[in-house]
Write a structure and sequence with these properties.
One of its GO terms (molecular function) is hydrolase activity. Helix content is about 35%, strand content about 20%. The chain is of the alpha/beta class. The protein has two domains: about 350 residues, 4-Layer Sandwich (Purple Acid Phosphatase, chain A, domain 2), CATH 3.60.21.10; about 100 residues, no CATH class.
Length: about 600
């Protein structure tokens, strides 16, 4: 058993011990032979951050008499648009998006599909069961195989707990509470409806429900292995003990595995969730894993790193094509702009807690991994190393945010891989909930003065819809709550021409056309997040040239600045750098 001491920050002279079965103790591997001919090229699809909330299946768990309905009469349980516009993801439309993507993959003949975490809203039984049924359907109809690994939303905490939301909509467009029976809102009789279908499941229940989709070996697999020498779900994990004592221990599940679904192709699914203890282990209270990632994994799961290195070495020795995936990024995902972000927004802004340190990335690269497909950040990004043999990290975009899409890894016969990302604009039925949202907005308009902008309901396709959602989130959450207040106020009240005048004292006639200069300065914020999220997939209607020119002007500006002028300069510098470093839409990786 491997043992590592972790000093806590909250109990003086206290330690946690993490233990896990060593590789040498592994039971005979699940290895099969024959049946599948080697193909010169194989394509694997990666669908990250689906966040499935099945609006139809979840409605069936409730009394439907006061639920809103689709045009076909089906009752639905949906979150409010008000809630969506304050979240980095859409809650409802993924119901339509996921089926559209699976149909597209089926039409392309793609049979291997990996799900790098956050495949559900919050691990609720209603949504996990609906996902399992959907994946079963596409496996039966098209022979598609699915390989899931956990994200920070599935599970939200390692063990099942009460769940619920306060912002579902009733048929009148009013927000109501739906929660599990053990939730405080249900215990106090203040919830609108209660059902245990809305608990937040832990590892055990999620893995058992999705057991056919990566969490256990299949007769179709050539090979299957876990770090723990067993495929028994109840025995896969780490024993965490307080004060190096066996008297106060918690078994922390870990669903990592490597599988060979087709001859000589290995998919390495890494469970990178780390739920750090709060207080004593005996209290069984844990932080969420959202901000932990690989920085925390290095401390809490060091034996997992050893196993990954062993998998890489054995894959090379046996001539296997290895592609790894997990929910969390293994490398920088902001195109090396961390210093600029910290300078303008602060150390903990922009979800920088989620950024792997250079030391963490170096340690992961030392395992020998060549290609890693990640999620979590709801953006598209590629991080390539300086050498031809280092770790390549690809951030797969979310299906539930702008820019919506998925990634394809094609393994070529020359031991190289092509990574292509597909942006999804066409989604049948994406606007099916618009009539319900209009009722919601009317309720808000009557009762408050905070009704959201209606232009999101004028979107012609799903790509436009997610762009409108992004603008809403930027306005309400990012700029509205997370940016420096003076800067947020300034760009909310001025034009692009005002910004340039403040910085340079005049607007050069060749910097941009009149229409662009008259646009609200908030456009600068919208465009930064568009570039950050989409790389070269972004279309700024020609404003890319403006940001390139501004970058050049800033490089040649030596004037001392302070106050708002300095903040504007820092913002434009960040925007110019992001614009310059847009991630390519296609990458070629050798040695895979």
């Amino acid at each position: 058993m491997g043992r590592i001491l972790i000093r806590t920050l909250y109990v003086a002279i206290s330690y946690f011990v993490l233990t896990g079965c060593a590789i040498d103790n592994a039971e005979p591997q699940h290895e099969l032979s024959g049946g599948i001919e080697e193909q010169p090229k194989t394509t694997i699809a990666f669908l990250a951050d689906i966040h499935l909330h099945d609006v139809v299946a979840s409605a069936k768990k409730l009394d439907t008499s006061d639920l809103p309905r689709l045009a076909n009469g089906s009752p639905v349980l949906i979150r409010s648009m008000q809630a969506q516009l304050h979240s980095t993801r859409l809650f409802n439309e993924n119901y339509f998006v996921l089926r559209a993507i699976l149909d597209e993959l089926a039409n392309k003949g793609i049979e291997l599909v990996a799900l790098p975490g956050d495949f559900s809203d919050d691990g609720q039984p209603a949504n996990i069961e609906a996902l399992a049924n959907l994946l079963d359907e596409y496996h039966t109809r098209y022979g598609m195989r699915f390989f899931a690994i956990n994200g920070n939303h599935d599970p939200v905490r390692p063990f099942t707990r009460p769940g619920g939301k306060v912002d579902f909509l009733d048929k009148h467009g009013k927000e109501v509470v739906v929660a599990s029976n053990d939730h405080p809102k249900c215990i106090s009789n203040t919830a609108w409806q209660c059902s245990d279908a809305f608990r937040e499941w832990g590892y055990r229940e999620i893995a058992r429900t999705l057991i056919q989709h990566g969490f256990s070996p299949s007769s179709e697999d050539q090979y299957y292995e876990t770090p723990f020498g067993t495929t028994d779900l109840d025995k896969r994990g780490w024993q965490w003990c307080e004060n190096d004592s066996d008297d106060a221990c918690v078994f922390m599940p870990d669903m990592s595995y490597v599988v060979e679904p087709q001859k000589d192709i290995w998919l390495l699914a890494i469970d990178a969730n780390v739920y750090e203890p709060v207080g004593k282990l005996s209290d069984r209270k844990f932080k969420g894993s959202g901000n932990a990632g690989y920085n925390a994994l290095m401390v809490y799961k060091p034996e997992l790193i050893k196993w990954i290195k062993s998998v890489v070495e054995r894959a090379r020795r046996k001539g296997k094509r290895l592609v790894s995936f997990s929910h969390f990024p293994m490398a920088d995902f902001y195109d090396d702009t961390k210093n600029e972000l910290v300078t303008l927004f602060g150390e903990t802004s922009m979800q920088l807690k989620r950024m792997p340190t250079p030391e963490t990335t170096a340690a992961l690269a030392q395992t020998g991994l060549r290609l890693h497909m990640a999620g979590h950040m709801h953006l598209y990004d590629t991080h390539t190393p300086g050498s031809a043999t280092g770790l390549v990290n690809v951030q797969v975009p979310s299906l539930a945010a702008w820019v919506p899409g998925y990634s394809l890894v094609t393994l070529n016969s020359d031991n190289s891989a092509d990574v292509d990302t597909v942006i999804q604009s066409s989604v049948p039925g994406f606007n099916s909930l618009f009539p319900i949202y209009r009722k919601e907005r009317e309720q808000l308009r009557i009762s408050t003065d905070s009704a959201w902008w209606p232009d999101i309901l004028e979107a012609d396709d799903y790509l436009m819809f997610t762009d409108a959602h992004l603008r809403g989130v930027v306005h309400h959450r990012f700029v509205g709550k997370e940016w420096p207040k003076p800067l947020a106020k300034y760009i909310s009240e001025h034009s692009i021409a005002d910004v340039i005048t403040l910085l340079f004292g005049e607007v050069s006639i060749d910097i941009a056309d009149k229409k662009t200069l008259e646009m609200p300065a908030m456009t600068l914020a919208y465009d930064y997040y568009r570039i950050r999220n989409a790389g070269r997939f972004v279309d700024l209607k020609g404003r890319e040239a403006l940001y390139e020119r501004l970058g050049t002007r800033l490089e040649n500006t030596t004037n001392s600045m302070s106050g708002m002028q300095l903040q504007i300069k820092q913002l434009l510098k960040l925007l110019a750098i992001a614009n310059q470093r847009q991630d390519p839409t296609h990458i070629h990786v050798t040695g895979v």
